[in-house]
Request: fold
Amino acid sequence: MKKEIVVLSLGGSIIIPDEIDLVFLRKFRQLILQNLRNYAKIIIVAGGGKVCRKYQQAAKKLTTISQADLDWIGIAATKLNSELIRTLFAPQAFSSIVDQPRKKIKTPKKIIVGSGSLPGSSSDLDAVLLAENFGAKTVINLSNISYVYTKDPRKYQDAKPIKKISWQEFKKVIGTKYKPGMNVPFDPVAAKRAEKKGIKVIIAKGTNLNNFSNLLKEKPFQGTVIG
Reply:
């Protein structure tokens, strides 16, 4: 049976919650390498997270800045995080980060690491475009939440977790307008593209590595399936 390709959208705030999380990254590396033989390729796209937002907030305080330039700052943050992730997996990883998600790449390496590419969306879109490019059917979004909720659980005590949701219903939860540095489970531009291409997205808590292991092994897991 042909092995699948899976794309991981790894939240930047998991990589660097405040300082670089060395404990998490060591365990994440070990888990990926343990499961590598079960997949044709594992593609990892690193987000910008708090590093991105700190720089964007500083820029807005210092000057009048365009939406596109805010995105370029975010893209630079994703590239820094992606280079860190790529080095974790040498020599199993492709030799450079991929910042052109539509570019055709032929490599025997089983791990490919991508970053943000162009203004107008977050690195979530790059994960979807890489899935489309490589023929992956699923994007696993590893964020700092366990589920998509009916409301923001930080603000509303009656927010309820959602285990499965259609793209139409998901877009009602997150809205349809993208803003640089926005904090949503999966950005609206990426959601629209994933829906169009029939790509399933799973939202799960990235720091729960036992749960992530279950996901990779196609065992029962905690998270939200979109699509």
